[in-house]
Design brief:
The protein is an alpha+beta fold and 117 residues long. The chain contains two helices and six strands. A hairpin with a 5-residue loop joins strand 3 and strand 4. Helix 1 crosses helix 2.
Length: 117
Amino acid sequence: MHELSLCYALLEQVERIAKQQQAERVVSIRLQIGPLAGIEPELLQRAFPLVIPGSLAAGAELVIEPLPLRIHCTTCEWEGEATPSHLRCPHCESLQTQVISGEEMLLASLELERVGE
């Protein structure tokens, strides 16, 4: 389950940012995950509570938002949303498409609590 190792890497990044911002704790973490990222959001949600005890993110909420899959057709220059099972251009039916977005996992935002706030 590589989602567990992703949670550890995410926690490292979150704690580094929280310390830079002089935060006392992390209240929430918002991720955006594309359908071709190779990540199972449900497994990530299950792994998250296993890695956060004792960290600045202990008790934090993990919010996962889906990112749309977007493609660009190199034949007719069409750009738009697609589904993972249908990467053919809906305009000209070409298979000459490139994925623009939908393969990534992004740390979209953190809600932090600072000392004295």
